[in-house]
Amino acid sequence: MNDLQNDNLTLYGESFTSRFLLGTALYNSPEIMRSSIEASRCEIVTLGLRRQNPGNRDGDAIWRYIQESGCRLLPNTAGCKSVKEAVTLAEMSREMFDTPWVKLEVIGDDYNLQPDPFGLVEASENLIKKGFKVLPYCTDDLILCQRLLDVGCEVLMPWGSPIGTGQGLLNRYNLNTLRERIKNVPLIIDAGLGAPSQAAEAMEMGFDGILLNSAVAKAQNPPLMAEAFADAIDAGRKAFRAGLMQKRQTASPSTPTVGQPFWHQ
Hints:
The protein has a single domain (about 15-240), classed as TIM Barrel, CATH 3.20.20.70. The chain contains nine helices and ten strands. By secondary structure, the chain is of the alpha/beta class. The strands form three sheets. Strands 5-4-3-10-9 form a five-stranded parallel beta sheet.
């Protein structure tokens, strides 16, 4: 088998062929969400209990479609602003969905939805002791990421930029530093990506996966955009594994003349 075809993503000992994780919020209908999941070829989808709208009565349909998709469910603690709130919601999710997996969010600022680093570490440690498999949504701060690893996280999900902004990879220096210093832990870019080209760039930098929601759900054609992101993620991963050419300050001819014959009339 071609080595590129056997390039699975491993999270907490579980193997996935797709490196695309997709959110299930903000779609105009459960049917569009279902079509987007299918087009994305993803194997993990996120679901936030606090951001479901009981008035729309869509919850049952969304859950049914997720079950039919065969994707692993990754419940999240979106909207939580304290350790206690996040831990309580994670425990509720484990009971409701029968999974110890959780995308952990502890938000520290309402303006840019930046994670609270202190609360995130405390909540991660608490949940890991309770048997959860924690995937923390964090910033691109190296020390924060190291502290999350210290308390037992086996996956990190740093932002590219604030949630829903579509700004892409705002701090490439920090992101490159994370990838260079944290070599043997899956790093998934979570939040802020707005275009498939941005996802491809993150994968070319050596990140292990992409988690997003708004860029697909808010597109004019969400299923088509989901497919575009899936293709970009695959292309970026292949480019990283193939080895990108190094940037140069001077031009270098693609057709060298040294040692080549010349023809004269």
